[in-house]
Amino acid sequence: MKKLKIILTLLLSVIMFSGFWSAKSDKEINAENNKAKQERRQKNSEILNKLYKYDPKAKKMIQRSYGYATFTNFGVNLILLSAEGGKGLAYNNKTKKYTYMNMASGGLGFGLGVKEFIIIFLFQNKKVFDNFVDSGWEANAQVDIAAKAGENGGAINAAITVAPGIRLYKLTENGIALQATIQGTKYWKDDDLN
User: Fold this and answer.
1) Which helix (H) or strand (E) element contains residue 125?
2) Would you call 24 helix, strand, or coil by DSSP?
3) How many helices (H) and strands (E) does the chain have?
4) Beta pairing class for 97-123 and 166-172
5) Of 96, 113, 122, 144, whose CB count within 10 A is highest?
6) Are 60 and 118 contacting, i.e. CB atoms less than 8 angstroms apart?
7) Cβ proximity of 98 and 91 under 8 Å
8) Which residue stretches of 110-190 are H helix?
9) What does the alpha-carbon distance between residue 131 and residue 101 come to, in Å, rounded to a whole number?
10) What pTM value is reported for the model?
11) H helices within 22-168, ranges in order?
C-alpha cells in the first residue's frame, strides 16, 4: 500500500510539473496564432472560389452584403449520435476586418458515417452581422432546398434565408447541398485568435 502511494505521488508530480517545463513563450503563442489566422484566411479564399464555381451570382451577393462568414465543418454520425465541429471567420465588408470563429453541434438521429461540408453566411446589415459575431449565434432551423448537385439538376441561386437578414449557402464535395441543415449548431468567437 505504501509503494502505491509513492507511485501515485510521483505520477501526480510528473503530471503537474510537465506543463510547467514545457510552457510556450508569448512569442511562440503569437507565431502559432498568426499561422492559424493565415490558414483560415487562405481557407476562406478557397471556400469563396468554390462557391463562385457553383453559383457565379454569389460573388455579387457577397460584395453587396454588409459582411459574410465562411466555415468548414467536419461531422461524424455514429448510430444514434451525431457531432460536428468546425472553424471559420467572419469578414466585415465595410471595415475590412476579420473575426475568427468556431462552430459545434451535436444531436440525436439515426445514421452512420463521416461528412465534410462548407457553410457560407451572408449578412444583410450591421445589426445581424454584429449580433452573429459579438453574441454568437445558435441555429435552430432546418431547411430543405432543391439545388444543382454536380451536373444534375437545374442551376438556381441556392442561398436560403435562415433568419431575418441572414442567408446561407451549404456546399459539399458535389456542389451546393440538396439539404441545408444547420439545426442545433452554435457559432462563437475564437478567443485565442481575436
Assistant:
1) none
2) coil
3) 4, 9
4) antiparallel
5) 122
6) no
7) yes
8) 126-135
9) 13
10) 0.74
11) 26-54, 58-64, 126-135
Q: Beta strand pairing status for 179-181 and 175-176?
A: unpaired
Burial label for 134, CB within 10 Å (0-12, 13-18, 19+), is: exposed
Q: Which three cell numbers stand for residue 154?
A: 437545374
- From first to last of its 194 residues, the chain has per-residue pLDDT tens of 666 666 666 555 555 555 555 567 888 889 999 999 999 999 999 999 999 998 899 999 999 999 999 999 876 666 666 677 899 999 999 999 999 999 987 766 555 556 678 889 999 999 999 999 998 876 654 443 434 344 443 333 467 777 789 998 888 765 555 444 555 678 899 999 99
Which amino acid is located at 5 in the chain?
K
Among 108, 114, 111, 104, which Cα is nearest to 81's? 108
